[in-house]
Give the backbone structure.
Amino acid sequence: MTDQTIFPALRYSDAPAAIEWLGRAFGFEPRMVVDGPDGTVAHAELAYDGALIMLGSTRPPDADDYSAKVPRPGGTALYLVVDDPDAHHERARAAGAEIVRPLEDTDYGSREYSARDPEGNVWSFGTYRPGAS
């Protein structure tokens, strides 16, 4: 169980491929995958170091009121804390992730980088912990 109270929820055109890629490139582990019709994903929960994200397959805008309003895939930016950004960066690079901001030390004391997933979401990984004293 997690103390987390905010859960990013993403939509992917090819959610099964996204689940595999997020695991291979960034180290996410599927905790729950609920299959939808025709090879889609109705709901999935992926874990990374005790935190969870949710994702599912896109549906046509006319499927329901929510699908008509939810952003299309690729418009999300997320930040995750990692203990070893150098190793994480190498894993992502080796898996073919598009590095959009190189590994660097920031003025605010973090070591971090950013990469784009195959559907356009930008993921940043670093040692900065928002809210930490």
About this structure: The chain has one domain: 9-126. The CA atoms of residues 21 and 92 lie 10 Å apart. Residues 9-126 form a domain with the 2,3-Dihydroxybiphenyl 1,2-Dioxygenase; domain 1 fold (CATH 3.10.180.10).
